[in-house]
Amino acid sequence: MATTLLETAKKYIEHFAALDTQLLESVLAENHTHQFAPASLNLYGPFDKQGMLEHNEDLRSILTGFPVTAKEYIVSEGSNQVTVWATSQTHFRNDVKDEGIATDEWVYEGEYIFLFSMDKTGEKITRTIEFLDSKKTVEQLLGLMNRAKKNREKRLASKVT
Predict the structure, then answer these.
(1) Is the dihedral of CA 8, 13, 15, 21 positive or negative?
(2) What is the pTM of this model?
(3) Of 24, 28, 109, 142, which cross-links 32 as Cys (Cβ 3.0–4.6 Å)?
(4) Under CATH, which architecture does the 2-160 domain have?
(5) How many CB atoms lie within 10 A of CB 133?
């Protein structure tokens, strides 16, 4: 069972590389819930399975990937849970960047703790709690994401006119 739990967690982490919605969907249980922590960030969600898939698609509109690298996996077979300590790096789409900030400033490197609760088979994730680096998320990531979304909107608006 520990191997199944670990493989399911690894697939979830792997989906971030290209924000692979199909891979993500394959490991989420129908009753899946996702919440971001700490609550003081007032971020998106909580999400059910469909909401998480839509959030992933929204990220794909501004990112080519958000590769997450696990530093450590802790498997708790008795509780069907896996904890992952990880880092990440954003890969923003070129068409959402602008010259107002340097190219290297479009790269955000974050740190996370994921807590996964699995179903009895260990093949589906029923609950995810994603702890974010509060300070860097607020001071850097959210600003980059908002800027990228505005740049995308401007680009799309210019194609319509």
Answers:
(1) positive
(2) 0.91
(3) 28
(4) Roll (3.10)
(5) 18
